[in-house]
Amino acid sequence: MNNVYLLPIKRSEMGPALDEQIAALWAVAGFENAFAPNDLAAIKLHVGEPGTKTFASPTIAAALVKCVLSTGARPFLTDTVVLYRSPRDNAPGHAGVALAHGFTPAAVGAHFVPADGLNGSDEIIVDVERGRHFKKVSIASTVMQARSMLVLSHATGHLGCGFGGALKNLGMGCASKKAKLRQHFGQQPRINPRNCVICGECIQWCPTEAIALDKTAAIDKKKCIGCGECIAVCLAGAVHFDWTIMGRALQERMIEHAAAVVRSKSNRLCYVTVAQQITKDCDCLGLDQPPLLDDIGILAASDPVALDQAVLDLVRERAGRSLESMAYPKTDSDVQLKYAESMGLGQRAYTLVSI
Predict the structure, then answer these.
(1) Shared domain check, 167 and 59
(2) Are 310 and 197 contained in the same domain?
(3) In this structure, which of 57, 222, 240, 298 has its CB flanked by the most CB atoms within 10 Å?
């Protein structure tokens, strides 16, 4: 049974002592063993979509950069481009958002390096064992080439998976653009014309121009890639998915990509999840979202499955209900944890240790 370590701290409480607190979390988790001198060490994070403020703080990233530097490794920040229309759908724009959100070399102590090239096509093909959906997957080249990696995640709800944590950060966050398309393939939304107010918001966010307006919004199924942006931005509740079927497939495909990353790094991976300002939607939604519950803290583990399970258990304990029930109740995020455990990514059983 693996340990999950909890630093019980609210975002409003983070101050000058944070470096020491993160260093203590790092030490008790034994993360120094994942890094070696001169490693090109990736810190995989999410810099936040313009408009959102709840992403994991650059202050936390800076403290972790210092920890990685103490091992003699050479850390850098990284993430992959997104499918939807955004400044983050290309490398220069993504790097610009990182700087605007405070992830600067001066503030964090490391540079932001896009993981999958100029427009998301730099990838390495990796074999997947025992996968139900894929035998080979495409992972961002920089992620694969990094000698070691710390996965820094912000726990949130998620419109396609119910929950986004370390496993999602691995599976979706490390996938190339082509791989993201393959994960979403077949999960196509539909429009309920009785609810559609013809506002056009879905059109602005659709990355493939698959939506048009007439008397109501209409989706061209041949162009639709199933990315889910339309359901995230529709305030009228006019866009729907068949979550019971496609939510499972999406999560399993995501886990197969996560498995490729985990197996490529062996014991050179560690995980930190920020359970502060947990919101209904992930940090890709460019909104200033209210938190669903009080801050829990910052968690660390060498097992992403145990870490995600601990976050979900703590949310239920603190809020009195599950994260999915507060975010997307039709989506069962238990799917990703069960499948990840069956794929050998970790164990759901854990011991929680507060520091």
Answers:
(1) yes
(2) no
(3) 298
What is the number of structural domains in the chain? Answer: 2
Supply the CATH number for residue 103's domain.
3.40.50
- Is 75 found in the same domain as 156? yes
pTM above 0.85, yes or no: yes
Domain check: are 212 and 74 in the same one? no
Residue matched to tokens 């944590």: 165
Domain end among 206, 224, 240: 240
pLDDT digits (tens, 9 = 90+) for 24-62: 999 999 999 999 999 999 999 999 999 999 999 999 999
Q: Which residues of 42-62 are buried (b: 16+ CB within 10 A; e: fewer)?
A: bbbbbbbbeebebbbbbbbbb
CA 105 to CA 213: how far, in whole Å?
44
CA distance 158 to 20: 32
Which of 25, 15, 16, 13 has the alpha carbon at shortest distance from 271?
25
Domain that holds residue 209: 188-240
User: Going by C-beta distance under 8 Å and a sequence separation of 6 or more, which residues neighbour residue 153?
Assistant: 45, 46, 56, 164, 165, 166, 168, 169, 271, 272, 273, 274
Distance CA 62, CA 52 (A): 20
